[in-house]
Predict the 3D structure of the following.
Amino acid sequence: MNEYPMAFVTAPGRVEFKNRTLPPLKDDDVLIKVKASSICGGDIHLYKGKHPLASLPMAIGHEVSGEVIELGPAVSKIAVGDRVAVEPVIVCRRCYFCLRGEYHLCQNIGYQYSSGQGGFTPYFVVSEDWVHCLPDFISYEEGALLEPLAVAVHAVRKAQIEPGHYAAIFGAGGIGLFLLQAVKAAGSGEVFIVDLLEHRLKTATSLGARFTLNAAQEDPVERIFKETQGLGVDRSFEAVGLEKTLQQSAQSLKKGGICVLIGLFEDPLKVIFPVNLFVQREIQIRGSRGYCWDFQVALELVKNGQVKLKPLISHQLPLQDLSRAFEILLDPKSQANKVVIQL
Amino acid sequence: MNEYPMAFVTAPGRVEFKNRTLPPLKDDDVLIKVKASSICGGDIHLYKGKHPLASLPMAIGHEVSGEVIELGPAVSKIAVGDRVAVEPVIVCRRCYFCLRGEYHLCQNIGYQYSSGQGGFTPYFVVSEDWVHCLPDFISYEEGALLEPLAVAVHAVRKAQIEPGHYAAIFGAGGIGLFLLQAVKAAGSGEVFIVDLLEHRLKTATSLGARFTLNAAQEDPVERIFKETQGLGVDRSFEAVGLEKTLQQSAQSLKKGGICVLIGLFEDPLKVIFPVNLFVQREIQIRGSRGYCWDFQVALELVKNGQVKLKPLISHQLPLQDLSRAFEILLDPKSQANKVVIQL
Amino acid sequence: MNEYPMAFVTAPGRVEFKNRTLPPLKDDDVLIKVKASSICGGDIHLYKGKHPLASLPMAIGHEVSGEVIELGPAVSKIAVGDRVAVEPVIVCRRCYFCLRGEYHLCQNIGYQYSSGQGGFTPYFVVSEDWVHCLPDFISYEEGALLEPLAVAVHAVRKAQIEPGHYAAIFGAGGIGLFLLQAVKAAGSGEVFIVDLLEHRLKTATSLGARFTLNAAQEDPVERIFKETQGLGVDRSFEAVGLEKTLQQSAQSLKKGGICVLIGLFEDPLKVIFPVNLFVQREIQIRGSRGYCWDFQVALELVKNGQVKLKPLISHQLPLQDLSRAFEILLDPKSQANKVVIQL
Amino acid sequence: MNEYPMAFVTAPGRVEFKNRTLPPLKDDDVLIKVKASSICGGDIHLYKGKHPLASLPMAIGHEVSGEVIELGPAVSKIAVGDRVAVEPVIVCRRCYFCLRGEYHLCQNIGYQYSSGQGGFTPYFVVSEDWVHCLPDFISYEEGALLEPLAVAVHAVRKAQIEPGHYAAIFGAGGIGLFLLQAVKAAGSGEVFIVDLLEHRLKTATSLGARFTLNAAQEDPVERIFKETQGLGVDRSFEAVGLEKTLQQSAQSLKKGGICVLIGLFEDPLKVIFPVNLFVQREIQIRGSRGYCWDFQVALELVKNGQVKLKPLISHQLPLQDLSRAFEILLDPKSQANKVVIQL
């Protein structure tokens, strides 16, 4: 157990395992035997060598669940045997933002993977403050998905959705499908979800979406205005990261509406935005970054049955098939959604 | 049709029908053939002669649904044959509050029943602005319940519930059971519902409540703190109107929490409140009055399946049995919940 | 008095007076003897033939004050002799937004000037609902400026400024200088105001700005971060309408900060925005359109002495010099700020 | 310097000095040479033996300013010679509330004085995190008043005052006069301030209050409705702690208005509240506890000149006259406001 492999993307399209030695557990650290670890859109950006904010080589994987098998000397809230999901941030606890409880804006924020500890590996060490206990009825595979669900929950809270609000979600990938469920859990009225891929829209339908719009076949903005008596939606979510969908997210809003931006743009310096929309229709665009006290909310929504994690898992593979997992995700014919590595 | 009966409480415990002549339809009026009309807690206050704000004789009934059978000359949004629920307010449209869209605070607010038009009657006349179309899958009996649901929705919006919030509801009568559903629809985490009557708590369980607390058997505040790791709930709702439950609603709050008050107190001038709680735990109490743009939200929640109206209907009776309906409601053995008069 | 002249821009750079006949006063109309009428940035867009939303010929002028000299038959709140400022909107009072009190988003919104009644004219007719009484200590010239002040007040309310917030204002023209005062009136901490013209920054200094930044001489974003210990400002205001200042408004924000956009862009379809800033720093951009219940607030701020109108008036001219007034405004050497036409 | 005196109330009406030994400075502690220390209403509760939450003997004094004269080994933000005001809380930094930045709600909150370190003493030891640097133009006597100003700032933020709001303040003691200034700094419109003592109302007038109401001479609720066209105020503040003023604070509100409660009640278990007001007028009562990131805001308001500290200081006395200082405060003829002990 002292030496164990951990996956890195070392060059575009290239996943390699490097050996790592188990560090001693510091005061409040827990040692986790990893059970499931899923692939994020950010990992795909890295795999393609196109991550807008990070460069290669880089450890990958940050959607991690497992069983606690050892405790640091000062651990008080977690016990050996606990089934947990990991919140993979590293924050300073001392800066302006941390002291105010907004740790996702920490001036010194890091992530486990960008600090060298990826999630595709059998062991994971993290402070007890950053693990969240899973009830028995949530499997490890589902538990790994708590991280992207927390991203969606954060965006929904940022949107200040109120009961009865109409919403539109651009992008029906993993984040989009979590947004769909979180938006419905927050009491929204009609929800529109937009994508180009039919299999994603089918999953959306199975998760309760009434309006699934294929943007290859119809103009989503036109349709949204038609179905809302010419008013538009109260809230929209951009979970793609393209100029076109950003424009549509803004255009589909009701006057006074709010668009929440979650997607990162691979080519941000070329995005033209129809800027007079802001004033003419008094709309807002709000960025949503990561999560902050959102794992707790995500867990409540899963416990209540308002959010289902399992239908998003399209593939489960062993650790040695990690490269193949990326190939599956990049192959449109695979109809992949979330791909989970089991350990 | 020109003469038709309408029910009044003329003295405590006494319901009488008086004949009324159909008024001519003004510009934007619609004439409704009433199909269902349910009894509200306010009606019971009147029947007992203990309404804190109104005196006898008084028309009763304001939870009304029916079919539109005739239109005033300027009606443009409603058609003959529409199935509708009535929002029974009368507002001036010109005062400070109306102009700002807060019509429930109208300086000249009235209600249909207090202006002489009760709801236990075969015909009802109201401006098209105050009817809400019912989809086919909502029965008239359910449609009549949109009014108390709107009361609950207004309270939930006033509470500014956020996904994951823990909530406690004091009172599992009609409003309490709608609050339960609306609070869950808004994405709350654990919900506690408190009452003295076991059959009401059973209905709450069937509507998805996990924690039903019988205050005759346990101290609800103690239990709530036990189940929330000593923190208390983020939001509480007082839907009873008694000193004891008001105190418990405040005491069960997490620091910084919000209690929404919906119940009217029959004996308001004797209510002692543990007032230092406000400062010590930085809590809030917010009154919630009626509804304002809440029928629309209520309809969305019913359409989405997040709120069920039918399980609240315990009795259905014809108009001539109206007196008996009140007796049923006052008899604890009847285990009544909402009693609907069918026409 | 039955025939009187009214100014139009008939072609770029061309102001013409057309004769107009006094219409009969409808129910709640009041007839105003115009005393002062000032020139807005929108008028300059029209004069240059570059208004992004309107085409020529067009009546000009909508910042109007005067004395009420005649009343329609149903006027009840205003008396002959009242000194008033005009709120120049035309709204339907029946649409989704009007009913909710958000009349600035009215589905059928118009403005007096775009409906044919400009403000550079001796008589003005408007419903009593859209005039605001001026206390004696506010002159007519100042009263005409209530309209642009209301624009600034609306933007400040949209920004949800809290006491102690740091703010940056891009653009020290009329709106910028009103923003400066309204932001300070709302309890902000340090305020930065940015422009290219030294005389505007001098006026800003005289109005209490501590940090006046000339963007021709230093990088305002760099300076703002230097003066805020590397944090940036809580709120920024874009009151220019250029790609560069929009970018700077966003870049100067503290993480989690809010930029309010007031300026209209003459060339909106070419504006590139560094869009990953939204997610990386979790910032917001909010459009601010016109005013809605803001004249009332603007009046309170003037009555309290928190906002001064007079220092913004650089030139006062008679009606026949209207063309010259535009020339003054377009001449950088004139050091003009607000130019008021006196009648 | 190793032994120094510190003041305690040992019995009602009895102030005694006990000798204390200087503790060694822990990591981030700073040693302050106290220069000024003022008396709070809470100290008076203690002196009278009627504090609702604390029992005798008890150290007194927590409004402290001074010069930093020694640093613990890990201090990094503060230097010897810094002029500072002290924020006298003790929080755990680990509980639910601390982690979220709401340290005033800390589950383990304490105060320096209740932990044995009062403020009427020549030396004070506190972590560098809880001192706030004073600019040169703020005297030490003024600096001591930053603490009660922070209480007022917290209440004003809790009230969510918006520009133009009308407000009423019940109680023109120290907190009331700071509330007056903070409410005006936040952009309020008309402000009413109510008290029984004429000299306090005079100070209020000198601080810019337009409506000073002597409740011994007129009914403040009646007057407020008369001056607000029958609407009432948007926000009220209860800074007395009596049943009567609590009732008036609620009754003077506009429908939908918010009352913020700051005063502690000496006799809380007898307070009857007209509880149907909550629902009938949809009002809110919000408790305000202490401060949380409010010293920073308070400093901004003083730096901007929006709040003046000096006019509140009615008496300055040396440490040996502390008992006499309490007598002055309890003597209505002394017309005392804030009494500052100078060292």
